[in-house]
Amino acid sequence: MVPELKVVPPLGIDTCKHDMRDANININTWESLAEDHRAWKSAGRGGVEGAEADRMEQLVQKGAKRKENISSSTATGFVCSTCSRDCHSRIGLHCHTRKCYT
């Protein structure tokens, strides 16, 4: 049986436009900005820093949401009698109790 090959589209102008939008560079006037090398370099550098800051903020929010969902989950019946840790499964409790000395 021959595995299916995934077709990856080539990077095109749409990808560049998306990146320029993320960097807060106007996609309709970028060519005139690029004519002035210093302005283009400054806009690119500042845009990348802003886009990276936005990306990191989104990651922090995503992690906080994930941790909130984990902490709000209901407790299972598999709790260690020694340290009161919730192990979520019977085999997890078994493995934990073999190592739990506290």
The tally of strands reads 0
Distance between the termini: 54 Å
What would you call the shape?
elongated
Low-confidence stretches: none
Strand coverage percent: under 5%
Percent helix range: 55-70%
Number of helical segments with 4 or more residues: 4
Instruction: Briefly note the structural class of the backbone.
Output: mainly alpha
Q: Can you write the helix and strand succession as a string?
A: HHHH
Report Rg: 25 Å
| Largest sheet composition | none
Average pLDDT, all residues: 83
How would you describe the overall organization of this protein?
This protein has 102 residues and is mainly α. It is built from 4 helices and no strands. The protein has helices at residues 13-22, 30-35, 37-71, 90-99. The model has no long low-confidence stretch (mean pLDDT 83).
